[in-house]
Amino acid sequence: MRAALMYAAGDVRVGHVADPILKEPTDALVRITTACVCGSDLHPYRSMAGSDAPVRMGHEFIGVVEATGSHVRTVKKGDLAVAPFAYSDGTCEHCRAGLQTSCVHGGFWARNGIDGGQGEAARVPLADGTLVQLPVTADDALIPSLLTLSDMLGTGHHAAVRGGVRQGSTVTVVGDGAVGLLAVLAAKRLGAEQIVLTGRHTARTDLGRAFGATDVVAERGAEGIEKVRELIGGGSPIVLEAVGHRPAYEQAYGVVRPSGTISRVGAPQYEEAPIGFGSLFGHDVTLTGGPAPARAYIDELLPDIVEGRIAPGRVFDRTVDLDEVPDGYRARDTREALKVLVRPGTGKL
Amino acid sequence: MRAALMYAAGDVRVGHVADPILKEPTDALVRITTACVCGSDLHPYRSMAGSDAPVRMGHEFIGVVEATGSHVRTVKKGDLAVAPFAYSDGTCEHCRAGLQTSCVHGGFWARNGIDGGQGEAARVPLADGTLVQLPVTADDALIPSLLTLSDMLGTGHHAAVRGGVRQGSTVTVVGDGAVGLLAVLAAKRLGAEQIVLTGRHTARTDLGRAFGATDVVAERGAEGIEKVRELIGGGSPIVLEAVGHRPAYEQAYGVVRPSGTISRVGAPQYEEAPIGFGSLFGHDVTLTGGPAPARAYIDELLPDIVEGRIAPGRVFDRTVDLDEVPDGYRARDTREALKVLVRPGTGKL
Fold this sequence. Notes:
Mean pLDDT of chain A: 95
CATH class of the largest domain in chain A: Alpha Beta
Largest interface: A-B, 36 and 37 residues
Order of helices and strands of chain A: EEEHEEEEHEEHEHHEHEHEHEHEEEHEHE
Distance between the termini of chain A: 7 Å
Oligomer: homodimer
């Protein structure tokens, strides 16, 4: 089959890879009908060293189940299903606790011999714990919104949940990427009253306002911190950090209120950062967050999409077919596109 | 009057300083009857560069109110009162939220011209927000336990509160200093069922067992992490870090369970440390804690001491008078003493 492959920074191509087959009785084979290019895909797109071995890409997809292993019970051939960005058994202690991203048998797409989402098909390990059947067809108008259950919406929601957002909360969202915008939507959905969005791209922050942002701060660095602190006297009780770069983290602890919470969901592109007296400790700031257990949130979020209460799919502003995926990366990288939907077309297993 | 002064690492002397006087109508003058040498005093004792200007020391004390400014309402001449390690107005938004350590008008003892606790007397700013009257006399047998309200007990309690300890919790306490031991006591008091204490000093860990530790791990580094993870399958849901050095923080994220919480109360002797995918983020670990609002906790903890349900004063294993304070530092530094009580004696204002 054909799939996107990254060879080095700036170098994505579509090539031939091995057709997926059922290997374990808990596997399903899925023909991918919709996928996307994620903000986190841009990290290697900007930094990957050249290598002889290209890597598979993509970790968000919806597809049609084509075959299932003998142990699979919850999906069957012909079902349309969404896959969260981590696969998981659904039965280990961490899955039962709602943290499927720490599943002891689980893992992430496009690593260690596991298929990626930017391709014609995928072997889905632990299908019962991973896939969720969708109540629509593959060409439904809700598909872009439903695809956000894979990662972006669950991740924005996770930021808000971990940050403790509830009725009446005051929240700052750092970052106007798709996850930041859906963190705004999630905070609004949970009842936040004041939502300050930091970002410089008007098209994006306008969508943020449509999702519920009450204020937008375009300034960065010290000036941006000052602006947020002007808008929210005493600092922001809750800060959702949806970028993953260190300046975003620094902005987060710059605007947070004493005893407040910073909830990070942007995959950190740093390992060490300030957490001592001058940043977190001195004012008793809590730092929380991590990879969202998107699987855990689908049951709660899916009805809001199907019943039209939220439309997170509005973050997609470009659609490409599989051959155009390299151009999708380019458009994301140059910020021409906020979020790119991938339609692999009539892929065959 | 006389007070302890630190000149450089390893060099503490008792010398003459200016007598405190009432400067503001919100001040009180307190003749100090009991103070102590804190674990955090050891940080400068091991690192302070020599300088012409020695610094005052001590931030925990009980004393007799000798005079009050015209605005002071809650204490009067002759009262015995305890001072938390931060002074605070009790009325600003952070004080009202229970975070007196972030008081907009408050501060810390022995800095910026404010008296320290290791001396004969102190000017207490914002006396109404700071001092709490004690229902005993200055020579009562409960005084060592009541002095822990100043810092150590409140700090151990803060670790447990921020860590979310409740009935049935499983907790690991990193550090067998006085705060670590009182974090054990606080966790037990809040209902923790399994309390693993890490520490190498048998006299201390024995006291930790008396305070409620169910297991003791003496090993350090990777071996210590493995031991804790053997005792608590899957890692510790709550870790209370009561040291402040980076290896203690590293041990904390080594033993914490996915989705667990690390609550720090040891003043960090580092600013940057790992918080990325490999430490906190990957398994959605929450980092919380900071300087304890000891003032906020006195109302809750005082009755337990007065009514004999807890005896945190057991951490004191040496008593010195003011002249012996330098020897008290030495004994703490060499670990001869766990915690040193200071009785300034019949100091005069």
